[in-house]
Amino acid sequence: MIKDTPNPPVHQDYDTSTLHEVAYRAINHCLNPGKPIPEPSEGIFTVRADLGTETLLVNASQDLASISDIANHLA
Q1: For the chain, first and last CA: distance in Å?
Q2: How far apart are CA 43 and CA 61, in angstroms?
Q3: Could you read off the pLDDT of 3-54 as tens digits, one per residue?
Q4: What are phi and psi of 57, to 5 degrees?
Q5: Is residue 72 over pLDDT 80?
Q6: In a 3-state reduction of DSSP, which class is residue 72?
Q7: Separation in Å, CA 58 to CA 10, 16, 29, 30, 41
Q8: pTM exceeds cut of 0.70
């Protein structure tokens, strides 16, 4: 009768210091993840690298239009 699965590999002696080092790094990674990355605020008046020039120009244009309307209303 033919065996469907091959025999498992012969047991090898592993270097225990390497296994301990790998286990320590894995546990240290899980238990000490480091500083959390702060969430960026959604306000437009914050320093954000992901705001494009077009967004800033649109906001400035809307601000100037609002100031113009207020000045016309008060005049």
Answers
A1: 103
A2: 17
A3: 788 887 777 777 788 889 999 999 988 888 778 877 777 776 777 788 889 9
A4: -70, -40
A5: yes
A6: helix
A7: 70, 63, 44, 44, 19
A8: no
**DSSP letters along 17-69, please?**
HHHHHHHHHHHHHHH---SPPPPPP--TTS--TT--HHHHHHHHHHHHHHHHH
Asked whether 47 and 38 are in contact (CB, 8 A), the reply is no
- 6 sits in the region (left: phi over 0; alpha: psi -120 to 50; else beta) called beta
Position 44: which residue type? Answer: I
Q: How many Cα atoms within 13 Å fall on the side-chain side of residue 27?
A: 6
- Evaluate whether 37 touches 44 at the Cβ level (below 8 Å): no
